[in-house]
Design a protein that fits this description.
single chain; mainly alpha; 9 helices; about 190 residues
Amino acid sequence: MPDTPPFEEWCRRLKASDREAYAALFDAMYEPIFRYVRSITSSAEAARDVAQDTFIRVWEARASLSPSQSLEAYLYRIARNRAYNHERNRRTRDEKEPAVRDKTAAQPASPARPDDQADADRLEDRLWQWIGELTGRQREALVLTRFEGLSHEETADVMGISPRTVNNHIVRALKHLRGRIHDYEPDLLGRDEH
């Protein structure tokens, strides 16, 4: 069947750090993974975060991939684990902060112009590529604090390091991301940051 994605080939190429294979895998599997995660998580935003994190984790683990095992099943397994972890963390946060959540009124976002949305989508894609360039510890600290909503203390506990070390990882990660954003679009950061 010519329409069947070449998972075994992608797996071999990913193992060799082939970014084109990674992009092809992402293009073919992002929507199915997103839909699957969306069926587990409480929101589309959470599903996007978990789906993107799934692909980051595949890239990080590329050296240990085995073409004899199903890459597709591996993707879904990671997505499932990340989705359930996300929901567990969300429930824990909700139990700790119900009063804050109840007092916060949802503000509708103003609709984006199509060209602004396309630019934002491209920047988001780039941002996730750049996050993938961070060291494992920097990425973990950044994702746990900025995307999973954990405090520095909670992140320190998860990572087995001190909160100060968590902060150091985040500072380095943000410095790297600012540099990449500056190289991509210097005006995004404003004149003070040049």
